[in-house]
């Protein structure tokens, strides 16, 4: 049996997450992936912003930093530039990472800095009142869209690839073995890596959409029933694709990493000055 105690600050438990929240599942998946990577805990930095997912670093026994709303990647970029030898991981909700932190996100992708970002994508602002987020499904009711969300939702995979991330994957909190694999591959990838994790918040999202989700278990089953491997996605109709969670590894490529290019520039400038 896997020993999670080695990676947990048990004095900080129990956690604050609600019954049915997927955050605990994703946290355990991250721990297993880190363990598989075989990294020294003193060489890991886990960074978060604000929101339910941001509480994760408080429970994990590595170097951790809890930052301002939407600014986790800005802080993480500074850490990686100062200490490129460290393994830097950012955990972020869909609102924290893609709305308030959206600009930091696309530019981290563009730079291809060696950071792994895991998006805890439950399609809602869970901690701050249940407002709709950039990934809330069209038509879903929220505290700020009581008659249904009128905005099209972001596709995290498309944004990540378009902005220049070199590793992009999507999993769900139901399909745990696959998620373990995606996170492990993201962690060990050289460059900016993104794992979009489809999961659920029943407290502020599911309860307002009882036509789709009667219970928190229904939200987990919805992931099971609507997840489609990338290899089978081309066979979907437009209507089926609209409600599908297409999973898999969408990009795994190599291009120069930002901190290495930065270090090379410093060396060139020092040589010119001699």
Shape: globular
Q: Which class in CATH terms?
A: Alpha Beta
Spatially, the strands of the biggest sheet line up as 2-1-3-4-6-5-8-7
Question: Beta-sheet strand percentage?
Answer: 15-25%
Level of helix content?
Answer: 25-40%
Number of helical elements: 9
Distance between the termini: 58 Å
H/E series: HEEHEHHEHEHEHEHEH
**Coarse structural class:** alpha/beta
Work out the number of β strands.
8
Largest sheet: 8 strands, mixed
Count structural domains: 1
Mean pLDDT: 96
Poorly predicted residue ranges: none
CATH H-level superfamily title? Thiamin diphosphate (ThDP)-binding fold, Pyr/PP domains
Rounded to an integer in angstroms, the radius of gyration calculated over CA atoms is 19 Å
Mind explaining what this structure looks like?
This protein has 274 residues and is α/β, with parallel strands linked by helices. It has one domain (4-273): Thiamin diphosphate (ThDP)-binding fold, Pyr/PP domains (Rossmann fold), CATH 3.40.50.970. It has 9 helices and 8 strands. It has an 8-stranded mixed sheet with strand order 2-1-3-4-6-5-8-7, with helices on both faces. Helix 6 (176-187) links the parallel strand 5 (167-172) and strand 6. Helix 1 (23-37) packs across helix 6 (176-187), helix 3 crosses helix 4 (102-111) and helix 4 (102-111) packs across helix 5. The chain is globular and about 70 Å long. The model has no long low-confidence stretch (mean pLDDT 96).
């Amino acid at each position: 049996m896997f020993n999670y105690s080695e990676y947990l600050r048990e004095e900080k438990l129990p956690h604050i997450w609600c019954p049915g929240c997927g955050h605990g599942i994703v946290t355990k998946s991250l721990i297993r992936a880190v363990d598989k990577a075989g990294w020294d805990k003193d060489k890991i930095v886990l960074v978060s912003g604000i929101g339910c997912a941001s509480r994760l670093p408080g429970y994990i026994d590595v170097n951790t930093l809890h930052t301002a709303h939407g600014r986790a990647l800005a802080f993480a970029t500074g850490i990686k530039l100062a200490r490129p030898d460290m393994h830097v991981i950012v955990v972020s909700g869909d609102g924290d990472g893609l709305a308030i932190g959206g600009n930091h996100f696309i530019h981290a992708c563009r730079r291809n800095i060696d950071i792994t970002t895991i998006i805890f994508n439950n399609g809602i602002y869970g901690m701050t009142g249940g407002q709709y987020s950039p990934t809330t499904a069209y038509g879903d009711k929220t505290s700020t869209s009581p008659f249904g969300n009128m905005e099209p939702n972001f596709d995290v995979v498309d944004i990540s690839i378009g902005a220049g991330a070199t590793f992009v994957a999507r999993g769900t909190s139901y399909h745990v073995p696959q998620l373990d694999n995606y996170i492990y591959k993201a962690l060990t990838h050289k460059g900016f890596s993104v794992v979009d994790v489809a999961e659920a918040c029943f407290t502020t999202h599911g309860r307002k959409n009882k036509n789709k989700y009667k219970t928190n278990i229904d939200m987990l089953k919805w992931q099971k029933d609507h997840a489609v491997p990338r290899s089978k996605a081309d066979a979907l109709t437009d209507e089926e694709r609209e409600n599908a969670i297409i999973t898999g590894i969408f990009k795994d490529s190599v291009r120069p990493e930002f901190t290495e290019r930065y270090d090379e520039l410093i060396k060139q400038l020092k040589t010119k000055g001699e």
